[in-house]
Structures are given as structure tokens and as C-alpha cells.
Request: fold
Amino acid sequence: MENFPTCKKCGNGVLLPLSDYGREGATIQYKAWVCSNPDCGFNIRIDNGVVSIGSSLTQSTK
Reply:
């Protein structure tokens, strides 16, 4: 089992890595990290080389 980093915002959850697919279908590992504590909501993600922290999360329709 992997050890994930503790969330520095809430200290209760752990940061879980999320992966995605690029425009050409290639896998992008660890594109985002989200806190496992639903009350926290901390997230960090990379889009086109830009790092975003704490932006709103929405569920994809895909």
C-alpha cells in the first residue's frame, strides 16, 4: 500500500493522486491531487503547464 502525503490544509485527510488523458489520448499521471476529507476540498492540478490551487471541483459529464 502506498503512503500518500497528509493534507497540509486540514491535517485530517491525505492527498490522493488523480490521472487524466491528454488531447492525443496519452495518460497524464498525477494531473491533480485532492484531499480525501470531503469537508476540506483542497485540490491542486496542472493544466497546460499552469498549476492551480484550490479551484472549484466539478464532476465531469464524460
In short: The radius of gyration is 12 Å. The chain has one domain: 1-37+44-52.
